[in-house]
Structure formats: C-alpha cells, structure tokens
C-alpha cells in the first residue's frame, strides 16, 4: 500500500513510471484506488499487466475535515 507519492509531473509518462516503481517485481493487485487524475486511467489502459485490475477513483475528503 502506498498513501502518497509526490511527483513533479502528473502526466501519463509520470504515471507509467509511478506504476512501474510501485509494482516492481510484486504481484499485480486486484484493485487500485487513485484520485481522479486522468493519466492514471490512461496508464492502466496502456499497460497490459494492469488490464485486469479494477480501478476505483476516489475523491479526497482531507480538506473537508479541516
């Protein structure tokens, strides 16, 4: 599980790099929860290893609790 991973860019190239680092040699998860950034969905569609992963986009409620 990874909670936050700040990156300078938030495009498809950065998302691919993020998922490669996150997954590494580990097993592919059944479900991924991400924020609503469009590049995550684009990356999941482009990487064959992630085609069977359920992608759940969530809205952060952090600011609502402050």
Automatic annotation (TrEMBL):
A UniProt-annotated Pfam family: DDE_Tnp_IS240
Domain DDE positions: 1-56
InterPro entries the record matches: DDE_dom
UniProt name for this protein: Transposase-like protein
Organism: Deinococcus humi
């Amino acid at each position: 599980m990874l909670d936050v991973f700040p990156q300078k860019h938030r495009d498809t190239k950065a998302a691919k790099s993020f998922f490669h680092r996150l997954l590494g040699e580990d097993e592919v998860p059944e479900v991924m929860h991400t924020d609503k950034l469009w590049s995550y969905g684009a990356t999941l569609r482009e990487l064959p290893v992630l085609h069977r992963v359920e992608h759940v986009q969530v809205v952060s409620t952090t600011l609502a609790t402050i």
